[in-house]
């Protein structure tokens, strides 16, 4: 599994990447990266990943709402 570097761009490549290089992380890599940051800083927030308490919802309502 690769590491998401802070010097990488999501679209296109970084300054040292070869021409035509594209960065397309897998969903697993994105979640792994997010969870590592979340574990290090409990106040870490992301505008791209919704957080909610799954215990407050019925299972069949989760997929429709999020």
From TrEMBL:
Superkingdom assignment: Eukaryota
SUPFAM superfamilies named in the record: NAC domain (SSF101941)
Domain (NAC): residue spans on this chain: 17-66
Signal peptide coordinates: none
Stretches for region Disordered: 1-20
Listed InterPro entries: NAC-dom, NAC_dom_sf
PROSITE patterns named among the record's database cross-references: NAC
GO biological process, one term: regulation of DNA-templated transcription
A GO term, aspect molecular function: DNA binding
Keyword Transcription regulation belongs to the record: yes
PANTHER family: NAC DOMAIN-CONTAINING PROTEIN 86-LIKE (PTHR31744:SF210), PROTEIN CUP-SHAPED COTYLEDON 2-RELATED (PTHR31744)
Stated name of the protein: NAC domain-containing protein
Organism: Malus baccata (Siberian crab apple)
Taxon lineage: Eukaryota, Viridiplantae, Streptophyta, Embryophyta, Tracheophyta
């Amino acid at each position: 599994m690769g590491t998401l570097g802070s010097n990488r761009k999501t679209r296109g490549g970084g300054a040292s990447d070869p021409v035509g290089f594209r960065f397309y992380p897998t969903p697993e890599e994105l979640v792994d990266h997010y969870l590592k940051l979340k574990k290090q800083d409990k106040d870490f927030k992301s505008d791209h990943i919704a957080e909610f308490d799954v215990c407050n919802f019925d299972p069949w309502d989760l997929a429709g709402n999020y």
